[in-house]
Amino acid sequence: MTSTDQLPTPAVSIQGMQKFYGSFHALKNIDLTVEKGEKLVICGPSGSGKSTMIRCINRLEEHDGGRITVLGTELNDDVGNIDGIRREVGMVFQHFNLFPHMTVLENCVLAPMLVRKIPRAQAEAAAMRYLEKVRIPEQARKYPGQLSGGQQQRVAIARSLCMEPEILLFDEPTSALDPEMIAEVLDVMVSLASDGMTMICVTHEMGFARRVADRVIFMDAGEIVEMADPETFFGDPKNERTKKFLSQILGH
Amino acid sequence: MSNLWRNQKVRNLFLQGLFVAAVLLIVIGGWMNAQQTMQSQRMISGFGFLHKSTGWDVNFSLLPASANDPYWWFFVIGIVNTLFLGVLGLMLATFIGGLVGLARTSSNAMLQLLGRTYVDFFRNIPLILQVFFWYAFVTRLPSVRNAIEIGPMTLSSRGVYIPALNVGGWYLFAAALALVAAVVLPLWTRTTRRIDKPREERRGMVLAALFGSLALVLALLWLGRLPETPLIDVPQLQGLNMRGGLRVSPEFSALLIAIGIYGGAYIGEIVRGGFKAVGRGQTEAAHSLGLSPWQTFSRISLPLALRAMLPILANQYIWLIKATTMGIAIGFTDFFMIVAVTINQSGQTIEAIAILMAGFLAINLTIAAIFNRINKAIALKGNQLRS
Known about the structure:
The complex is a heterodimer. By secondary structure, chain A is of the alpha/beta class. Chain A contains nine helices and ten strands.
């Protein structure tokens, strides 16, 4: 990783990124820079390419054009680069994607032990710290299937944190949850934000965006249509599509 | 009274009673009918014939056999033969099936095509045809004098000769059991929840279980070795015949190959289905955590796929064990063939068929019980799983 004193390396830098599914142009000419410590919220109608975009950042999807640089490392076909970036970029999924055959604690220590080669005792101690941070240390010996959705999502966040990533990606983390569980997950995300974590969140929780985001992005039809600080974004949106979207989701 | 009849529980009880009565009627009726018919034909029923000597011989036996042996000993021989063929056949089928299933789920188009062709071809030809084909194949190998030698193995039309151990029967049997333990014990030690120790720290215990069992195997072989012979008996051509070693009869080889290849096609599909059943979310999560492809496969995909496969695999194993009865078509003395010859020679049809059914029931219920136990032990906990 290269860094100079004058210009800090951005966490994520995307230039002219293209993504196709067959002939369908899913992402069109995306330019985006996320600084370290920044909190970015991405919203937009379904099918607008939000998830695809953040899934390109850790190579769960392959981009077809343009450049993606994560923490100074270019994301290309180099397996070493991909592994290196994945080590530093955690991801929280809509459906949690915990490993159902392992206990909560085993879920948390698996990657640190296998990828970072941390001894078990140390990995478990760290895992317990992060489970306390997401407020479920008492569930460490249970299996994912024995927890509620909100608890599972908090375990998933703890599992990502155990790798001590520089950047966390959230792909609609509350969309599969019951209303009372959304709050417990958002609380954890707010406290992470205040710790200075770089966060890129695809979410429709506009309250969270207002409270936490440094910038909000609106995407439609594979393009970034609007990008602004939350105050401007919600108070004075420029684009017609943004206005329509906001009126639809804030209307009732 | 009409009120009573409208009561759901009373109705269910009445129907149950009716059903049991009908079943009893059929069984008792059948029994009485059989008794009457046998009496009128002056046939003697009962299991007394088990202690008479058979007067005929078997062409393949792992246990000592002669025409003077009683019927019950022949049934034991039959069951052991069926189990021997069945277990080896299942192992071969599982090995082939694993390769085929992995090929079909791989990202390599060539491997996918190969796997698919294999399944399409071997799954769609009746098993009996494949048995006949392989029997024709192995009996048309070169004669003993021109036999094909592959390492210490010799392939000929009279059978496949492999090196044998000069070890007494019971010691050999015990050593075989110890060898099974050498596989099962380390696995159990590695995975059980009964040992209160994290899995990484069990390496010592796993190695102890492995090497302990292997040492036991060697010790048993050493103790049971026959005096004044080398421990390993390599087959050699002497004159017109092979001396030493163990002859694997063409009948056995043909059945083993047929069951392995045919079963492999089915198991390949089960393996493929198992891997398809693993949610994409789990592998994506593993990738996003930085796990390598091998780590993702061995820690996430395989354990989850196995859980999806096991119930169907048990079904397939039971099916394949029953497929050993194809032995009668080419003259391999499996359990079914021994029962069939017994019926022919002794006339004790009902008894022999009862023994046949009991034997296969015992084998297959054991397989089912083992698999249920494993299933239960590794079942995913909780009911709140999504995706």
